[in-house]
Amino acid sequence: MLEYGCLATLFLTFITVAARYHDILIEAQEALTREASTDPLTGALNRRGLDEIYDSEVARARRRQSPLCVALLDIDNFKPFNDTFGYRRGDDVIQALARQLTEIVDPRLDFVGHIGGDDFFVLFRSEDWELRCQQLVSNFSEAMRGMVGSDEC
Fold first, then answer.
1. Main-chain dihedrals φ then ψ at residue 121, nearest 5 degrees
2. Model pTM?
């Protein structure tokens, strides 16, 4: 017959193991939720992630009566670029734009999403959103000049 001390030790070990498995399951669930809301090419929110953020941010802006700006971005002449230089280089351009967007937004306030193809969505709560957009155009133009040599144009 087992002693009470041995039973207590077994019970505490069981509780500790169960708590650890619970923590592992929570971490896995959070990772799956992030992955389900993230575009694998860009690391930005995907359509599902945008839908969730958009609804909550619009509700927040209404409650607080605060401004909210939505920017839809489309890369000019992307299809001809993709057809000429190939999908890998096209993906490089999309990733470059995603990086530029991530750099110009305030991560505490703003959200970047990749809708698909060459289309992006930015939800700005930043009050200086116009300046940030102008900075993006300038930075992206410069990045594209660096990606495509003058002999390739």
1. -135, 130
2. 0.77
10-44: pLDDT as tens digits: 777 878 877 787 777 778 777 777 778 999 999 99
Is 55 catalytic? The answer is no
Those residues whose C-beta lies under 8 Å from the C-beta of residue 116, and which sit 6 or more positions away, are 47
- Cα gap 41→134, rounded to integer Å: 24
User: d(Cα 40, Cα 110) in Å, to the nearest integer?
Assistant: 20
Candidates 74, 76, 118, 128; catalytic one: 118
Buried b (16+ CB within 10 A) or exposed e, 117-139: ebebbbbbbbeebeebbeebeeb
Nearest alpha-carbon partner for 94 in 144, 152, 130: 144
d(CA 13, CA 62): 50
Burial 74-83 (b: 16+ CB within 10 A, else e): ebeebeebbe
The gap between the terminal CA atoms of the chain, to the nearest Å, is 85
Provide the token pair at 43. 């690391």
